[in-house]
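Colleagues,

For the teaching module next term, I've prepared a clean inverse folding example: a structure given as tokens, and then the sequence designed for it. I'd like students to try predicting residues themselves before seeing the answer, so please don't circulate the second half yet.
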């Protein structure tokens, strides 16, 4: 079925995108010129020492995601940008960002090793950039990411310029999952995932304005939360509106059935006003939304993607904390 496009099929059946964000402790983003091969870190500009490090980290099953990134300046600059995003413990709004400008891509592996050993390497810098948005354009890995990711990247970059958002950078990225939702993006430092994006929904996400219900179609979830809790968080966003994005949140699964079809989830939120609210919810598998589809254009067989819905939601605690922080 060479003419099969997984993203087209997802649109056709109306698959829900929520709950498909991946929960990583750390993102390590390495600027590297295109083209990239299907297994991105085997690409010709990736040095051997970095390939070995990525392989070691992957084998150790650490919750670390390495990605290649590039933008329209990558081939013209005489340095390599390295970005490390690290999850915070407890209530948080975003990942902590560490940015390095390295004279050569061969230095990336050494700097990352030092950083992973809790030694602060040199070359770190503070920048005025407050958001890095990654768009998957990794067409050699999945053709939908070329078909939808590349044109979306072009329009998204133009949108950022026209809105004068000088503190936002946009990057082409190697594969981070969910090609059937192409064009798909990660908004860092928050770590929120989006899919099936178009210019209108992207503009709303950039500016936090417009109809919040657009998130029903494009919000894949927040990578700091377990996937079933992402459905609960989406529902709370729709209740609270764009203000929700200013709040600090933590979430966890309290109980789950053996088959994972019923989950008791908890989400605590610290609002800008200083109040601390804890919500609990019964989250259940939704048979009407669960789908069996090919997860990518090249998949040989279908997979079942379990979807959840919030059956009961209740506020278990609310208190005012000091807002002096």
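(Answer key — instructors only)
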């Amino acid at each position: 079925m060479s003419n099969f496009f997984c993203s087209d099929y997802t649109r056709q059946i109306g698959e829900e995108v929520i709950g498909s964000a991946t929960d990583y402790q750390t993102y390590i983003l390495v600027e590297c010129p295109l083209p990239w091969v299907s297994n991105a870190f085997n690409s010709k500009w990736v040095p051997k020492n970095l390939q070995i490090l990525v392989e070691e980290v992957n084998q150790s099953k650490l919750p670390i995601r390495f990605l290649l990134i590039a933008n329209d300046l990558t081939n013209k600059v005489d340095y390599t940008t390295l970005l490390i995003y690290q999850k915070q413990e407890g209530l948080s709004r975003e990942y902590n960002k560490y940015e390095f400008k390295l004279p050569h891509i061969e230095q990336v592996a050494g700097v990352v090793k030092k950083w992973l050993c809790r030694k602060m390497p040199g070359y770190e810098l503070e920048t005025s950039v407050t958001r890095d948005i990654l768009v998957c354009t990794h067409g050699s890995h999945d053709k939908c990411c070329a078909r939808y990711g590349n044109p979306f990247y072009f329009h998204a970059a133009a949108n950022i310029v026209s809105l004068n958002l000088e503190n936002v950078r946009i990057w082409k990225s190697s594969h981070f999952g969910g090609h059937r939702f192409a064009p798909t993006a990660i908004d860092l430092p928050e770590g929120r995932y989006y899919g099936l994006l178009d210019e209108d929904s992207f503009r709303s996400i950039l500016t936090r304005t417009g109809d919040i219900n657009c998130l029903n179609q494009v919000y894949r979830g927040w990578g700091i939360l377990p996937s079933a809790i992402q459905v609960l968080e989406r529902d709370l966003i729709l209740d609270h509106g764009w203000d929700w994005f200013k709040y600090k949140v933590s979430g966890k699964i309290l109980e789950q059935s053996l088959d994972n079809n019923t989950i008791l989830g908890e989400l605590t939120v610290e609002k800008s006003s200083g109040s601390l609210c804890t919500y609990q919810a019964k989250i259940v598998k939704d048979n009407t939304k669960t789908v069996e589809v090919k997860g990518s254009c090249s998949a040989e067989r279908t997979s079942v993607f379990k979807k959840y819905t919030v059956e009961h939601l209740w506020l278990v605690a609310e208190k005012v904390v000091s807002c002096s922080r």
